[in-house]
TrEMBL record:
Matching Pfam families: 7tm_7
Job description of the protein: Gustatory receptor which mediates acceptance or avoidance behavior, depending on its substrates.
Transmembrane segments: 21-39, 59-79, 100-120, 135-155, 198-221, 233-256
InterPro entries assigned to the protein according to its UniProt record, in alphabetical order: 7TM_chemorcpt
Sequence similarity: Belongs to the insect chemoreceptor superfamily. Gustatory receptor (GR) family.
One GO biological process term: signal transduction
Organism of origin: Tribolium castaneum
Protein name: Gustatory receptor
Localization terms from the record: Cell membrane
UniProt keyword Lipid biosynthesis present: no
């Protein structure tokens, strides 16, 4: 284990100028797509919708594009060093199970189903001239789902590695083995810290986007029943599929981060329960100092309490919609 741990720390931290140029070009391309999307919808799509639904659609597009833009900016430019550290660490703790592979396949099947139904239903009600601009948020929603799976994979690997670490700690009192456990714990702690630094804002925006899409979907279904707009039942089913699609991505991400945080929290108590040797006291001091947790930018952990924040955002959006309609 010591060789693997040392390998974690041998990281090439170079960031060539060509990589930065490529990242900036990618960001500019995403912003250009968003501009084409919004301008086209203002001219073709939003005149066919009510004001509130058009505003919510524009906000949803802004959030999903913003997640991709911030992700590229944070991972490839602002925090390139931390991203290289994550890449080097993941190569050594890459654990793929049949369950995780099944999850990936299932998510992509849901993506294909949702996208196909969206094209069928909304193209039918809006017409291709107005609907074609919706292909842009479809693309970015797919990128979002890949982002959610990426964080899920990282958090799951961290959880399993902490579980292995705790079993090794419980089975040995050897100084060299405990030293190796300290090194492994340090690397895992830094990995969680880097995830928080690079991906914290994206996860926070994900909460806002999920709440907005849920309210937007329910509002469109309300329009289906109460207004004279050219909606079809198939479109209502489409919005329900979108809600399911985004909820699954959010749940997978949040629960995996929550389990990783819970597993990391077991280390201090395990250290206190073991024999109080000099090396173990040093280990406990390190554990208390690092306190590894996947966090949001404001410092709160990514755990199941996030759903209370999402519910709060949903209530805020509902109040705003009611004010507009009133």
């Amino acid at each position: 284990m010591s060789n693997k741990t040392l390998a974690f720390l041998k990281i090439n931290q170079s960031s060539p100028i060509c990589h930065k140029i490529s990242s900036v070009s990618t960001i500019l391309a995403m912003l250009a797509l968003y501009l084409w999307d919004i301008v086209g919808k203002i001219n073709e799509t939003y005149p066919k919708l009510e004001l509130t639904s058009g505003i919510m659609d524009a906000m949803g597009d802004a959030l999903v594009v913003g997640i991709s833009v911030i992700n590229t900016l944070s991972a490839n430019i602002l925090n390139r060093k931390q991203q290289l550290s994550i890449n080097a660490s993941v190569k050594k703790i890459d654990i793929q199970t049949n369950r995780s592979k099944l999850l990936h396949v299932s998510v992509h099947c849901v993506v294909c189903l949702t996208f196909s139904w969206d094209i069928f239903s909304r193209n039918r009600s809006l017409g291709w001239a107005a609907y074609k601009y919706n292909l842009v948020p479809l693309f970015f929603l797919y990128k979002f789902q890949l982002f959610a799976l990426q964080i899920h994979n990282l958090a799951t690997k961290i959880e399993r590695r902490f579980n292995i670490l705790h079993r090794e700690m419980a089975q040995t009192c050897d100084v060299d083995q405990i030293t190796n456990c300290m090194k492994t714990h340090y690397v895992l702690s830094k990995l969680m810290e880097n995830i928080s630094t690079i991906y914290g804002w994206q996860i926070l925006l994900m909460y806002k986007m999920l709440a907005l899409y849920i309210v937007g979907g329910l509002y469109f279904i309300h329009l289906l029943k109460s207004s004279g707009l050219n909606f079809h039942v198939a479109e209502a089913i489409c919005y329900l599929l979108w809600n399911k699609f985004l909820i699954v991505g959010c749940v997978v991400l949040v629960f995996s981060c929550d389990r990783a945080n819970q597993e990391a929290e077991k280390t201090p108590q395990l250290c206190r329960n073991l024999k109080k040797t000099k090396i173990m006291k040093q280990f406990l001091k390190q554990v208390d100092h690092l306190a590894p947790t996947i966090r949001l930018p404001q410092g709160s952990p990514v755990d199941r309490r996030a759903f209370f924040d999402i519910i709060s955002d949903i209530i805020n959006y509902v109040v705003i919609v009611l004010q507009f309609d009133g």
